[in-house]
Every structure is written in C-alpha cells, then in structure tokens.
Amino acid sequence: MEPIRVHSGLVYPMNRANVDTDQIIPKQFLKRIERQGFGQFLFYHWRFDEEGEKRDSFSMNDKKYTDASILVAGDNFGCGSSREHAPWAILDYGFRVVIAPSFADIFYNNCVKNGILPVQLSEDETQAIIKKAEQQKLELTIDLEKQLVVEEEEFNFSFDISDYHKQMLLNGWDEIAVTLTHEDKITAYEERQHLTG
Amino acid sequence: MTQPKTIIEKIWNNHIVHQEPGKPDLLYIDLHLIHEVTSPQAFEGLRMKGRKVRRPELTFATMDHNVPTKQRHIIKDEVSKKQMHTLKENCEEFGVPLADIDHPDQGIVHVIGPELGLTQPGKTIVCGDSHTSTHGAFGALAFGIGTSEVEHVLSTQTLGQARPKTLQVKVNGKLGTGVTAKDLILAIIAKYGVRFGTGYVIEYTGEAIRDLSMEQRMTVCNMSIEAGARAGLISPDDTTIEYLRGKRHVPDGEAFEQAAAEWRALATDEGASYDATVEIDADKVEPQVTWGTNPAMCVPVSANVPDPASQEKDYEQDEVQRALDYMGLEANQSIDSVEIEHVFIGSCTNSRLSDLKKAADIVRGKQVHEKVTALVVPGSKTVKEQAEAEGLDVIFKTAGFEWRDAGCSMCLAMNDDIIPPGERCASTSNRNFEGRQGNGARTHLVSPEMAAAAALEGHFVDVRQYTKTALNG
C-alpha cells in the first residue's frame, strides 16, 4: 500500500448522509476476482442512467470535479456491507482522502488498509467545506503528520486519528508482516488453548 | 472480589494474543467463515507473498451470494461462474473445507454456521460479510471484516482490533402477539438510528430477548450492523444450550455438559457496567414496515410515511425527500396503502425453518394476489429439506409462491433474482438501500409474517388481523 503523508488536491463535495457501500459500488461489480479496475464502477447508478449514459443531474459528472482527489461527504459514510471493493473503487477512481463527520467502522478500517486517509471533522467543519466546494473549485491540503486540513483562505481544521492508523498510513505497512513478528505469541496462545493442530 | 464483567469483555480478554500500548489488541480468531465474493483477492494476496492458511480446519467456506436458486447448474453469468470456480480452486489449494453448490451443507454462511454447530458461545467469529453479527445470538463475538482482514486471518488466525465500547440494548417487557423479532430490531433501529451502534459492540438484554428462540435471536443480532455496530450478541442461557445440543460440530456426552457450564459462565455478570445503555419497551412495538432507503426509515404498520417538511435540518429534509422520490411515495401516505409487486421471503435475516413455518401459517389455503410474484428461498439445503419434510413447500406452492434453492438470492440480487426498476418488494431481508434488490428496485423490509400477508393482499396489512383467529382459537 502507498504511504500517505501530505496530500493536496481538489474537493468533490457530496452533501449526503448515510452513503452506503451499495451506492459506492453496486453488487453487480463484486464478481470480479481482482483488486484493480473498480474505479469505473464508483457510484455507478448515481453517475450513469439505465442506458449507461452519464447523468447530468449528478454533480460528480461535472467537468470541474474531474480531477478531484478529496471526497467530502455527510455523516456515517460507508455504512452497510463490508465489501472492500468500496475503498478499492474510491482509490482507483482517484480519491486519496475521504472527509466526513463520521464513518462506518468496517469501511474506516478498509480505507486505512488501502492507503486511503479517512478524516473525521465536525459536522460544521464538513458542511463549511461542502458549501464552499459547491460554489467554487476548492483545493485542500491534508497533513497527516500534523493532523490538519488546511485551505489557503479560511480553513484550518485539526482532526483525530489513532496513532496506530496514522503510522500505518504514513508508512504503508504490510500488517500481516507486522503480525507475523508475533508468531511465537500466536503459537503460545494456541498451545494454551490446546489448539495446536 | 473480581470486577463484574460483560460477556463482551470476557470473550475479548480470553482471546488476546498480544497487547501493546497504543496499538490494537491482537485477537485470536476461533472460526473464519468465507464465501466466494470477498475471498478471491485475499487468497491471491497469500499466493503473491508465498503465505499459507495457518489453520485451514478453523476456516469454513461456502457459496451463497452468487448461486442460482433455480436451475441450479445453469450459471449464465461467466464472471459469477468464475468467482465460484475460483473459491473451489482456492479451497483445494489451501486445504480449506468447502460446502460448494452441490454439497448437502450448502447455504447462506450465517445460516449454516449455527446449523452445523460451528457457531458456539465464547468464540470469536469473523467473515468477509457484515451480517456476521448474526452469530452473536449464541454469545459469540462475531463481526464482519474486509478482504484485507480476511487475508490477515487466513495467514495468521488473528486480527488486530481496537477494544470496542460496550452498548446495552435493553428490551423491557414482552412482545405482543403477532409482533416478531424482526419488528423488534427494526423498531430499535427506527428509534435510535442507523449509526447509534458505531464504535460499539451491542449486548441485547431484557425479558423480551430472553423469551426469543435462537432463530429469533439470530434475526435480532443479524441487523446489529444496520445500527452501525459490527457485532451484537446475547448472553448464552438454557435456550442457547438446548439449541446446540446434538449439533454436528458441538461436543457430545460429558464433554457437552462441561462446555455448557463454560458457556453459562460467559454470560454478563450481575452488576457489570456498559459504556452506554438504551432501552425500548417491547409491548409498544407494532409490526414494522420500512418506507425509505435505509433501515431506520421505518414506521409501524398503522402509521404514515413521514413528511420532509417536518424534519429539523435542511439536509435531513433533503434526505427524506430523496428517499420518498426514490421509493415513489408521497409524504404522509399511509404505509398500508402501499401496493407491492414482489415478495421475497429469505436472506440471512429470515430464512430459517421457523421463519418459513410462520409465513406458511399465514398463506395456508390462501392465494397470492394476482399482481404479486412471490418467492421463498430457504437459507440452506438443510432448511429446505426440513421444510419439505413438514410439507411447507406444498403450502407455499399451492398458494402461488415459487419454492427455490438455498442462497442469498434477492437480498442483494447478485444472481438472477432481481427486482426490475421501479417495482416494489416486501422483503424479509436486512437492507433497503437504493438498488439493493436491483437497479431502481424499491425495497420494504418486513417480517416473514408481514411479507406473507402482503403477498396475499397485494399491499401491506397488519398481520395481527390474520393471526388473531388462529391464535385465539
């Protein structure tokens, strides 16, 4: 996974709460056995109509957001299914950071494991970013080391993240390799529980 | 004297392999369930790094999401076919037991785990599926994980997890006649919202929970994730232990009695405290029907669909309006006036034998409404066989239902069981998200009894009118 330290980019504002993983990537695209190539299916039924034509009514299709790499949305983002295809689609489409007032637990973990930085800001801060990004092109810089979301003109918001998640994202750790350094402890646990095979 | 503990803390503490300040606890995983959709990339990850499955015998695989429920072996979708084939190859390569489409144990992963006795109190259970919370009904700590975590568990039989907060959902009093476990969990989510459980593990307590059968408890725990909680569980008691007695993977004889004593000891101690508690009165719960596009958008069958104008914040107004538009409903419309074209009885929430029996009791000797297509999809091959042994298939078919083979089916419409755009389904599943049952499809979540009654009437009705005679007589 690609480490992330400081990310600057364009905001795409999605002023919706409870965006579920069925919307992020609909089920018909979960049949592939690869990790790559899911970006084209991101928010598929919101972006495209029954004929596969882009919906003008959905703002993500607006040219001004084409290069967006920071997704800012409402409360409880990523609720629903555990499908990791959701963060795979978000990343493959070009987003590196998702900002929301809250995230669903499984989705949050899935983001961190794929090098997507989930940033939790307050409802008011999120709304301020969304409102501004709806009116104009908005560039933000997210500094993970300093835990700050900064914009040239007015925004300077700090955010919380667990130290473990922060280190994982900063270093792009292979978590399995880290766990395997505790191999002796796993074996000792199995012996204690009479689980040796 | 030791501090009283909740079952959540007890299971957690029993499974800590390694602890370090500032890091998640490394937990041992007792049972890892896998299916075709969320595992291929995990196995591929193992192959790329030259890793193996640490404990194949603690891993169990089945095919459920993609499988056809009629003409079992005609899988028209090549990509689906490949995904199922890949699971078979992966299980062979890594030595993982698999109940594939032809296996007598095949079924929805959350139906067969308990059925086979793989699910037991005190276990840590994971699966790349958010409805893994179902297994919490047995007093197991069971939660859904992503594919990276699937790979981690395959490789290490452990998972790093931050200690969750504990949330007690206390259900006081008794459920009324004709009101089900499904209505209860929908009412809880309607009252407290789709994210009150985020960051928590829920323990359901109280008289109404104790009164539930194991299958009803599974329905409640299944939908914990719809409240945001990765896991929801119920302390084991006599009901749990009697259900497990004689199950294939459960010890028997003296060993069973010993296990049963250990299971009982896991129950939350008197006086243990939770990080938060919410309560609900069971006797006030009515049969529920969802009207919108998440499970908290739900009203009692006697009520009306809400009015966006009565919401406090502007984005809440937008959310309600968008849901009404998607669902093709008018503000303030009575929910029982809503006409349906489809009925789906199935899914990991409500496809067990008792669910099918209750639905069959409603439809016995009656006819499905002429405008309605109705489907019963048993949760496993075993459920299907048991139901047929009791003649339920005949009751359903005579009434005009289709009687299908086991799988996830129309809950998420990954196979051919799809609701067409704009059409409406009364469904016993767990999610009414946009497009869940098919692009543009409109889902109303209900209990099996309510779905059965809607199938007969062509619109929602209070099922208690149907059961009154039978129950009083």
Automatic annotation (TrEMBL), chain A:
Keywords associated with the record: Amino-acid biosynthesis, Branched-chain amino acid biosynthesis, Leucine biosynthesis, Lyase
Among its keywords, does the record have rRNA-binding?
Answer: no
Q: What does it do?
A: Catalyzes the isomerization between 2-isopropylmalate and 3-isopropylmalate, via the formation of 2-isopropylmaleate.
Aconitase A/isopropylmalate dehydratase small subunit swivel domain mapped to chain residues: 6-123
List the HAMAP family hit by this protein, alphabetically.
LeuD_type1 (MF_01031)
EC number, as in UniProt: 4.2.1.33
* GO CC term, one of those recorded: 3-isopropylmalate dehydratase complex
Protein name per UniProt: 3-isopropylmalate dehydratase small subunit
Catalytic class of the enzyme: lyase
Q: Which family does it belong to?
A: Belongs to the LeuD family. LeuD type 1 subfamily.
Its gene is: leuD
**Catalysed reactions, as listed in the record:** (2R,3S)-3-isopropylmalate = (2S)-2-isopropylmalate
Q: Which organism is it from?
A: Thalassobacillus cyri
Single GO term (MF): 3-isopropylmalate dehydratase activity
The question of whether Lyase is a record keyword is answered with yes
Assembly and oligomerization:
Heterodimer of LeuC and LeuD.
Q: In which pathway does it act?
A: Amino-acid biosynthesis; L-leucine biosynthesis; L-leucine from 3-methyl-2-oxobutanoate: step 2/4
Matching CDD domains, A to Z? IPMI_Swivel
A GO BP entry is: L-leucine biosynthetic process
SUPFAM superfamilies recorded: LeuD/IlvD-like
Q: Which domain of life is it from?
A: Bacteria
Automatic annotation (TrEMBL), chain B:
Keyword tags: 4Fe-4S, Amino-acid biosynthesis, Branched-chain amino acid biosynthesis, Iron, Iron-sulfur, Leucine biosynthesis, Lyase, Metal-binding
GO molecular function terms attached to this record: 3-isopropylmalate dehydratase activity; 4 iron, 4 sulfur cluster binding; aconitate hydratase activity; metal ion binding
Needed cofactors: [4Fe-4S] cluster
Q: Name one Pfam family in it.
A: Aconitase
Q: What domain of life?
A: Bacteria
Signal sequence residues = none
Record-annotated residues binding [4Fe-4S] cluster? 348, 408, 411
CDD domains cross-referenced by the UniProt entry? IPMI
The record's PROSITE patterns line, in alphabetical order, gives:
ACONITASE_1, ACONITASE_2
| HAMAP family linked to this entry | LeuC_type1
Tell me the protein family, please. Belongs to the aconitase/IPM isomerase family. LeuC type 1 subfamily.
Put simply, this protein is called 3-isopropylmalate dehydratase large subunit
UniProt source species: Thalassobacillus cyri
